[in-house]
């Protein structure tokens, strides 16, 4: 947790231009070597830019209005002083709440399991070159794959997982050539790993590791990318 807070502090210092030249160069070298860190920095940049604009215009205008508006009724000096102190304090608290809500919304939208799965799912190739040539065994296999693909599109990952698992079980009976069978094994194993991630089944980690360890797997690079995107980070914690 301390490390993540340090990362967040570094991101803030970088975006606000408060780093020394050496710190900035070191941080930019770190970003160049770490895709996940670059994503976090860009995410915070968009959020900070939005709230900076809000603070510099609407927020500042409201504070000025509060400082200059007349009191509705006579008050003692002590009450007026307290009131003037509490108003900007309440406004600052409201701004912090807005930032917190904005960060949470952005994290869920881009860093939740479901968001990551949606961005990394690869719809299979349903052309004739990859099956569905009219044979009964092929048609049964393709029906399960197509139905599972529709489920993923609709966010029904549990149902999709069951169909992908069954499709993989009956793949040897579909009569495909060796090349086509490997295509479908790779596609289904990747799709099943993503579905398990989406529903919170911990087996997804071992699935993805197996794919990442297989140099011949069609989705090896995506598996490595997924491992990088799902590692601990501020945005990932906010998305949970």
What does this structure look like?
By secondary structure, this protein is an all-alpha fold. The chain folds into 2 domains: 2-114; 122-239. It is 77% helix and 0% strand. The model is unreliable at 77-83 (pLDDT under 50).
Unreliable spans: 77-83
Going by helix content, strand content and strand pairing, the class is mainly alpha
- The domain count comes to 2
Radius of gyration over alpha carbons?
A: 26 Å
Termini distance?
15 Å
The number of helical segments is 11
State which percent range the strand residues make up. under 5%
Order of helices and strands: HHHHHHHHHHH
Report the biggest beta sheet as strand number plus sense, adding barrel if it closes: none
What coarse outline follows from CA principal-axis ratios? elongated
State the helicity in percent bands.
over 70%
> Mean pLDDT, rounded to whole units?
77
Number of strands: 0
How is this fold's topology laid out?
Layout: H1 2-15, H2 21-33, H3 35-68, H4 77-111, H5 113-120, H6 136-153, H7 157-170, H8 178-199, H9 203-213, H10 220-229, H11 234-239
Helix pairs in contact: 2-3, 3-4, 4-5, 5-8, 6-7, 7-8, 8-9, 9-10
Descriptive tags:
about 240 residues, mainly alpha, 2 domains
In short:
The chain is mainly alpha-helical and 240 residues long. The chain has helices spanning 2-15, 21-33, 35-68, 77-111, 113-120, 136-153, 157-170, 178-199, 203-213, 220-229, 234-239.
